[in-house]
Amino acid sequence: MWWTLLLACNAPSYDTSFTCDAVALDAEPTWEGHPSDGWSWEKTGALFDTSPVAGDGDLAPTLFPFQGALWMVFSRKVGVEMSLWTAHSQDGASWSEPTPLIGVPDGAAQYAAVAPKEGALWMWVGSGSLDQYRSEDGLRWDLTASGVFRGREGDFDALSVLYPSVIADVVGWRMVYTGFDGATYRVGMATSADGQVWTRGDHLALEAGDGFDNAAVAQPALLAMEHGWWLWYGGYDTSSTNPGPWRVGLARTLDGVFYDRMGVSVPLSEEGADAWSARDPAVAWYDGAWRMVYAGMGTDGVYRLMGARSAVCP
């Protein structure tokens, strides 16, 4: 199977000299009653001060190491338009003031994946179809190819592909992404040698389950581990409210094809900036801990980028 090769060839290394914890296989359920993923994520609050109107704000982050720091690209929504912004961190906790990307036009929807390779940064961005960009400094971007990946008529992504997550590996690039068919969201897979010509996987990575993700799954974030792959994602819940809120969940695969759900990573808070929704996860290993940035929405209806930290052993 086409993902299996990565398990031996692309396993990242981690500094485990610090005191870390094992995944809690018997973790208590979240306060809402959903199973927990056992990673014991500690929420660290909002990353930036922001006061937009309801329905606006920051969302869809992607995390990546670059030039000795942890970098992030995210979408800033104002009305019906989105623009892409970046910030970086030296410690994984405090972030620089956000700066807009140069060379990427604003659009009605902007969801980006960024991955470093051979000293440069590559980005896939769009909604409906994906364009490819390249950057040497993380601020100025050049369009390298338009419409490099589209949905397929009659399939789960027939109307749109969005929320890509891309990883560099020995065969080129691997992507998980959200597909929309007009009814619901599912997560698919694809591979590419050059980031422009993509081969779709034979299976879905995830589709709606029977718990907190009973209506839809979307916004995937993929990482390679020594013993498989971990996939964080947003699950949409309509079990108690309709429309229901998003929550961040975790799934794992050993063969790169079939994923097992592990539970909720980021439950909703009982009050505050993510009391209504937690979605759009981005995860990276940096400075001796797992770092997560996700989009939270409180009862004011504003999207804010939120942080979380886990000391689980990789």
Label this structure with key terms.
Tachylectin-2, Chain A, mainly beta, 1% helix, 314 residues, 20 strands, 4-stranded antiparallel β-sheet, disordered N terminus, 1 helix
CATH topology: Tachylectin-2, Chain A
Tally of helical runs: 1
CATH superfamily: Glycosyl hydrolase domain, family 43
Number of structurally distinct domains: 1
- Using DSSP, what is the number of strands? 20
Radius of gyration: 18 Å
Outline, from the CA principal axes? globular
What is the H-and-E element order? Answer: HEEEEEEEEEEEEEEEEEEEE
For this structure, what is the CATH class?
Answer: Mainly Beta
CATH architecture field: 5 Propeller
Summed over residues and divided by their number, the pLDDT gives a mean of 89
Q: Which structural class best describes the helix and strand composition?
A: mainly beta
Distance between the termini: 24 Å
Strands of the largest sheet, in order across it?
A: 1-20-19-18
Q: Assess the beta-strand content as a share of residues.
A: over 45%
Low-confidence segments: 1-18
Helical content band: under 10%
Largest sheet, if any?
4 strands, antiparallel
